[in-house]
Write a sequence for this structure.
């Protein structure tokens, strides 16, 4: 992994070397992020465990791979692609989902835990501003987790590919088809794009969770979620409509239709990069409204941490 | 130059008034004990000084406004709240790395040197350390920061007497150099009487006593009055009287030592004696008469 998340005690010695370019202004930010990774080991543990579980499942399933590949060889190119790419995309999707769940629970505790155990008085006794603290915590789901799971997903997919290749060595046409129909490099580039789009699209969600975690005295999850469910229920009962629920659904999964060209189910393009539609994504008002909201919520969280009585 | 200067410092939480127009001035190089009963406003005053809470009135710490210039001020001020605030998940080496990373005035070698004298292991988590060791660790971190002001809010709460004594010994021998200023609040008043250069009593958000220890020693006298002189002693208007084993101990403010010596055994009262006297009078009167 190319992130400092796997910080083991012995890596402490080389820590300054990890940040040679860190200037006086970015040092508090860098150390605040490291501190988050020290405290919340689930940030790197959960995606790794998810990847390991899926690899194990893939391994069990791979016993029948030579037989299944022979069947796949009889299909046309599009169906071959769909059949071969499916587990690779599933792994990516499940690890992304894991990271989302980790990010949600991380944010809910990020500004709450330090008040609960009163360690906020220690953090506040050091020259790290409230804004730096809030931004460092926001960077975990928005920057650190995407980078981390990119590495985890690509590594997992590489292992799957090598494993499959080894199992198919007795059947050269199967190996050739596997490598021909699996555009791993393009998939990785598309993954970078997807992770960026998801992070930007979900930014207001994480910002909201951070604000609630800094505000609520207890039961952060309930405060974060129940108001939305209440509004949905109210709208449903009072007006028999579900506009608000659609709005929430759009915020959760809207990144996909906005950032990618619509695909008919079961048909994948030969090159995954042709499915990207960055122009549509950056011209979606929902993206910019969400980002503006995220900035406002993070500013509110920083202000709250500054103004509120520390304990 | 004054390290801390406050005029009309106010703070209220809803209807509760925590600081009711506090005026205070702490010169550089002093060790001030801020003493007061629970809920007197000590922690609120310290939080205002540290820029942790907004306040009314005027306050300057090291020449800066702690609320608007907190980011600059916090580099020159250190703070130990009490033993509970070091994060429990943190390992000792992580604490050293982190403070070294974020604090430009932290001298890591100094902290390591201090830790080497303790039984604290580098790989231990804070939650695995005893209360006393957590305080030692916190002190090691704080003493290695070249700060101008150190604020200690009940730093030895819950520690046994050995750790408490060691704490103040380290502070005096390894940290205090006559330039730095220390403000400390504690309930264990007797133990720090010899450490302090100044003492301040705070009650119901007001400063009710403010004097240096030299003034304290010349101004206040406790007399264990011989039974036959009790009436004469009471005529000299003691600020407090209490009975111990059937004998009266009277506390005087600014009385003549010679005159008192004729009435019984004269000694300098402890801060705790005076505290009880002042707070007792406070409870009886609407206004602080002890000033």
């Amino acid at each position: 992994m190319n992130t400092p998340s796997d910080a083991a005690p012995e890596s402490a010695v080389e820590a300054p070397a990890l940040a040679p370019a860190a200037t006086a202004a970015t040092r508090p930010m860098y150390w605040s992020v490291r501190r988050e990774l020290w405290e919340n080991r689930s940030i790197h543990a959960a995606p790794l465990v998810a990847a390991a579980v899926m690899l194990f499942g893939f391994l069990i399933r791979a016993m029948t791979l030579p037989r299944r590949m022979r069947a796949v060889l009889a299909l046309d190119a599009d169906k071959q692609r769909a059949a071969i790419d499916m587990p690779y995309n599933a792994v990516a999707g499940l690890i992304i989902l894991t990271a989302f769940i980790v990010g949600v629970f991380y944010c809910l505790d990020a500004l709450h835990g330090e008040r609960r155990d009163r360690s906020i008085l220690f953090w506040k006794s050091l020259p790290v501003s409230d804004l730096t603290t809030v931004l460092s915590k926001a960077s975990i789901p928005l920057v650190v987790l995407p980078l981390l799971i990119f590495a985890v997903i690509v590594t997992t997919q590489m292992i799957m590919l090598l494993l499959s290749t080894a199992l198919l060595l007795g059947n050269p046409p199967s190996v050739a088809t596997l490598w021909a129909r699996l555009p791993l490099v393009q998939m990785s580039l598309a993954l970078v794009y997807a992770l960026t789009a998801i992070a930007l699209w979900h930014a207001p969600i994480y910002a909201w969770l951070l604000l609630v975690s800094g505000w609520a005295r207890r039961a952060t999850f309930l405060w974060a979620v129940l108001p939305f469910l209440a509004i949905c229920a109210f709208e449903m009962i009072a007006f028999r409509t579900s506009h608000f629920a659609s709005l929430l659904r759009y915020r959760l999964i809207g990144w996909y239709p906005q950032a990618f060209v619509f695909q008919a189910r079961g048909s994948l393009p030969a090159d995954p990069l042709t499915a990207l539609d960055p122009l549509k994504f950056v011209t979606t008002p929902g993206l910019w409204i969400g980002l503006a909201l995220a900035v406002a919520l993070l500013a509110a969280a920083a202000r709250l941490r500054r103004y509120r009585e520390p304990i | 130059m004054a390290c801390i200067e406050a005029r009309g410092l106010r703070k209220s939480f809803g209807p509760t008034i925590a600081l009711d127009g506090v005026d205070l001035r702490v010169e550089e190089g002093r060790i001030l004990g801020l003493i007061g009963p629970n809920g007197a406003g000590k922690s609120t005053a310290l939080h205002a000084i540290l820029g942790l809470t907004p306040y009314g009135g005027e306050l300057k710490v090291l020449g800066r406004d702690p609320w608007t210039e907190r980011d600059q001020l916090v580099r020159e001020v250190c703070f130990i709240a009490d033993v509970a605030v070091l994060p429990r998940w943190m390992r000792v080496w992580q604490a050293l790395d982190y403070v070294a990373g974020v604090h430009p005035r932290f001298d890591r070698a100094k902290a390591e040197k201090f830790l080497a004298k303790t039984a604290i292991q580098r790989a231990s988590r804070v939650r695995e350390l005893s209360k006393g060791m957590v305080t030692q660790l916190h002190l090691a971190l704080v003493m290695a920061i070249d700060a101008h002001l150190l604020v200690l809010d009940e730093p030895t709460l819950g520690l046994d007497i050995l750790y408490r004594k060691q704490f103040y010994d380290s502070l005096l021998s390894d940290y205090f150099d006559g330039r730095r200023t220390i403000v400390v609040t504690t309930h264990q008043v007797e133990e720090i009487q010899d450490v302090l250069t100044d003492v301040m009593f705070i009650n119901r958000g007001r400063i009710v006593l403010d004097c240096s220890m030299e003034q304290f020693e010349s101004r206040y006298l406790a007399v264990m009055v011989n039974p036959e002189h009790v009436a004469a002693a009471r005529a000299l208007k003691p600020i407090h009287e209490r009975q111990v084993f059937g004998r009266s101990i009277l506390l005087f403010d600014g009385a003549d030592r010679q005159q008192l010596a004729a009435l019984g055994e004269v000694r300098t009262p402890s801060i705790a004696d005076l505290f009880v006297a002042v707070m007792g009078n406070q409870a009886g009167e609407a206004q602080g008469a002890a000033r």
User: Anything to note?
Assistant: Confidence is low (pLDDT under 50) at residues 286-291 of chain B. Chain B has eleven helices and 13 strands.
